[in-house]
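Human: If only I could read C-alpha cells as easily as an amino acid sequence. Underneath my words sits a plain record pairing an amino acid chain with its C-alpha cells. Take your time, and here it is.
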Amino acid sequence: MTVSNTQALAYKPLQLRHRVLNRWLVSGVLTRHVRFEPMTMEGDINDWLIKGFSIHENPCRREFVEERRASVPEFPLDGVPAVGESVSRWESSAEWEVYFPWGNPRVETSGFYYVPTHMLRYAYTTVVSPAAHRAVLNIKTCGGVALWVNGKLQADFTPFTRNIEQLHSVEVELQAGDNEFVVLHEDLAERDTLYHFTIEYTGGEAIQLKLPLPALLNAEEASHMERALTGAYLTKDSFADEDIVLQFTESFERDVEFVINYSTFIFGYGKTIRRVLPKGSKELVIGHTRDFGTEYKQFEFQTVAGGIPFKKVYGLEMWNRKFEIEDAPGRTVAERKRIALECVAEKGNADIHTAIAKLKTGGDPETTRKLIEVGLAGIRERRDCADFYLISLFRFWRDYRDSGLFADDFWDEIKETMLGFRYWIDEPGDDVMWFFSENHALLFHSCQLLAGQLFPADLFTNSGERGEQRRAKAEAQLHGWFERFFEEGLAEWNSNAYIPIDILGLVNLYDLAWDAGLREKAGKAMDLLYAYMTAEAHNGILATTFGRSYEKELIGNHGAGTTSLMWVAYGVGNVNNTTFHVSLYLSDYEPPASYGELQRLGSREAVTYRLEQGKDGYAKLYHYRTAAYALGSIDSFRPGLRGYQEHIAHLVLSSEAQVWINHPGELYPYGAGRPSFWAGNGYLPKAAQHRGLAVLLYDIGSDHDADYTHAYFPLHAFDRTEQRGNWYFGEANGAYAAVYAENGLTMTEQGALRARELVSAGRRNVWLLRGGDATEFASFEDFVQQLADADVQVLNADGPPAVTVADPVYGSVKLGWNEPLAVGGEAVVRDGAGVRGSLKREEISR
C-alpha cells in the first residue's frame, strides 16, 4: 500500500471551540451482519420519550461491547493508503477516499441499519507541527475509536453508548514536521445510527493537516470541485411542475457527469440516475417533478474530479400535481380514496402497500407478487419497521387467498413468514426492531392479533405458542393500548410522521379484528386523530408543534402522510403517494364529516385549541389559527435539557411559506442526527404562546458544538421580505410572518442553506415568532412598522433569561425562565385542557 510518488493537499483544521482534525483519507465502511443469542426485553413503551432512548438497550449490544473491550486492536496499516485502493475485512471490501466534511466537524457516515450490523472503517491523516510538543487531543464518539500517532497506540476509547457522544482526552507527543495519525473506528449499528468520531487539537501550535495523494491526481481540479460543491445550492426546497435544479456559483471547462443516488424508507429500495452539468453551465437539472411522486427525498451527488471521488447530499421536496382534481372538497370520500389509491399505484415506493394498490387498480399480479416477495425477505430478516409492512398482508390474504391469482407456494411463503415472526419484546430475538413507541406497539399487537385469528391452531415457531394463544394475548395488549391512548392521547404528540402509522394499525383493526370492542375502539381512535388534525391543520397542512419530527415532513408538507389523510377525508391540502394509507383507501371507514368545518374559517374567524398529551399530560399544547396563518407550540417543555425530536413552535402561512426556530442538534445540514440540523433541538428552550405570538428563551449548555440558534425562513416561498434591525418579516398570500432574535439575525447567503436560514449567534438568546393578517393590521407595511417599533425588553442579562414584549395588539406579554407566561400582567394557566382538548372558535376584532 506504500505510495512512492505523492503530492499533498494541505488544510487548516476546522476552528470551533478547538481546532478539529476533520481532513482525512478514509476507507469506505466495512460491514457484517452479526447474530447474537436471542433474548427478551422489557420496559414501558413511552418512558423513553422523557428519559431517553438509551434506557432500552438491546441485549445484543452488551454482548458486542463485552467482546470488543476484551480485545486489543492491532495497527491496521502496512503503509500509506492511496485513494482508490481496496481494503477488506470479513467478506466486505471498500476503497480509500478523501473525506470531504462540507463544514461538519465530525468524520461521519451516519445512517439507518435495519439489522444488527458491525461497522468498521479506517482513517489516515498527517498532522504537520512547526515544533515538537505535547498536546491534548479530545476524542469524541458514540462507538469505539482506537488512535495511533506515529505508529504508537495512544488511545483505545470504547464507550459504545448508542447515539450518545462521549468524550475522552489523551496527551500525545508530537514531533516537529509530519505526524502520522491512524484511526480504527467501530460501532454496532441498530436502526438510526450516529456513526462518527471527532478529534480536537487543544495545543498552542499552528498545525496543518496534510493528505497524501498520488502524483497522477490533479489536485487543482479537485480543489475546484470542492469549492463548487461547497457553494452549490438548490434554488428552492419544494419543486412543483418544473425542473429540479442544483445551482452552482462557478462553472467548469468540461462536461461534468454526476451519478445521483436516492432512496426512501423501504427495505433495499434505491435508484440511480446520471446527469451531466454541461461545460460552462451553472445549472444541473436533476429531472422534472413529473418523473417522481409527491415526496421529500435526499439525493446523493457523486462525481470525480482530478481523479478524486466526491459525494454530497441535498434534500428537497417534489410535488407532482398529476392527481390533483378540481373541486376536491365537493367529491365524495370514496372518490378521493380511489384517486389516492391510483396515485400510490403509479408513484408509490416499491413496497407491500404499493403492491396491493397496483393489484386493486388493475395491475399485473406478477408485479404485485415480486414486490411482496421483496417485502417478505425484510420481514423474515426482522428488519426494523417490518411491522409497518407485515400489517397489510392480512388484508391481502383476506382479499386474494382464494382468488386463484397466485400459486400455493407463494401463500405458503407468506404463512411461514407470519408464523415465524417475533411479535413482541417478551419473545426471544437477536434483531434490532424497535418496540418502544406507541406506533410500533400498536402495529406489533395488531399484527399478532390478526395472525392469531388467521391461524388459530398453527404453531408460531418463535414463541412456541398456538395462534389462539397469540390472539388472546394480543386482544389483552390492544385493550390496554387503547385504555392508555384514550387517557393520555399521543405521547408523540401531533407527529405528522407517526399519525399515519397509527392510522395504519387502527384501520386494519377496524376492518379485520374479530373482537367488536376492538373494532369500535379503533374507529373512535381514528376519529380522535382526525379531531387533532382538523383542529390544528392549516388548509390541510399539519404544521405545528410535534413530539417527533423529521426534516422530510417539516420541509415536505405536500408529501407528509397527514396531508393526504386530510385530503382524502375533506378535500383540503393535496393528495400524495404515501404508501402507508393504502389500507385506509380500501376501508369503508370515513372520519366525521363535521370535523371538516374547522378547515373552513371565515376571513375574521380564529380558532384557539388547547390540549394535553402524553403521560401525566406532560405535553401542554397551544394552537392558534386564522384563515391566513397558524401558529402552534408546546408550553415550557423540559427547558434547558437536551432535546431529541421535539419540534417546539411552528408558524405556517402556506405549505412552503413557514417559519420555525431551533437549536441545531448537529452542525451538518441533511445529516442523520436525532435531533438533526432542522428537526428537534440540541437544547430545549423555554417556550410559551399567546394567540399569534410565540416566545422562546434559549440557554444552551457549553458542551454542545452549536453555539447559535437559527430559524428556517425560505425566501423563495414569500412574496416579499424585509429586515428591520433584529426583526425579519415576510408576506405570502396576504398573510404575514415576523421573527425576532435579541442577538441579531443574519440571512445565510452562501452554500446549501442560501436564502433560507436566519442565524443568531450566542448560547443565550430570546426569539419571538409572530403571525399576522389583515384582521389585525391595516397592511403588511403596517405589520412591519408596528412590530419594528414594539418595545422588547430582555431582562436578567446575568441570570435566568426573561423578556417583556409590548405587542401592538396583545399588549404586554412576558415570559421568564422561572416564571409562567403573563399577558397584561396576568399569569396564564395551561393546565386542565385534557386529552380531548379545549377548542374555541371566535370572531376577531381589531
